[in-house]
Amino acid sequence: MISVNRIFAMTLRYLYLLRSSWPRVLELAYWPTVQMIMWGLINQFLAGESQWVAQAAGLFIAAVLLWDVLFRAQLGVSVVFFEEIYSRNLGHLFVSPLRPQELALSLLLVSLLRTLIGVGAAALLSIALYRYSIFTLGLPLLAFFSCLLVMGWAIGLMVVALVLRFGLGAEGLAWGIIFAFAPLSGIYYPISVLPGWLQTVAFFLPSSHVFEGMRAVMREKAFRMGDFLNAAWLDIVYLAVGLGLYMLAFHVARKRGLLLHAGE
Fold first, then answer.
1. 57-to-68, 172, 222 alpha-carbon distances in Å
2. Given Cys at both, which of 18, 69, 76, 115 links 148, Cβ 3.0 to 4.6 Å?
3. Burial label, 241 (beta-carbon count in 10 A; 0-12, 13-18, 19+)
4. What is the dihedral of CA 222, 223, 225, 227, to 10 degrees?
């Protein structure tokens, strides 16, 4: 027989779990808000600029593929790290002579390989399905790829730092935090579509310079060195912050004995 009391007790249990973890509460409103903002901006752009889009065949396909570089690079760092937590192997790793810097570098290398495999397969499939090759961008593609890859690494390290500090309650950030950058990156529309104050914020994102540069290559057949240099120096700052937070979180976790209890 179904017990209303047991149902009520379990519901309270999950509500208490939700209340005790701010990342879980944030996640509830996060996805609808980001989707609404991004697609609202896309709609606003396309309403008056359909001819602009028509001038650059494959614009959206190239944008999606480059965006996936950023997404896969970030997941390649954070999700691989989570696998160590799921298997409760993190404490065992650091009983060995392994240093946190060495773990970080191995995560970055694995992220590179996973990104090449994932995005490479999608790029080849786009040739077969839509007769569009992102490789026609030429050498600028290498610059765009590198900038987005490093940004993804930096964000991935920040997520790892949060999980080391707050536990798996912050795991949802690994899947969602990257999309907070999407509306400001100008993936499917120029940064000029954004309100003025948001354009200022977007300037400090490497990804916004990459996608502006991509559109310049596709529409004007010109590689803007300024966009690349802006993205590059911002990447250096992001990566330094990511590594700094990772090392700090690791130091705190080791001092408090959290490495041995990760995943519990």
1. 19, 36, 16
2. 69
3. middle
4. 100
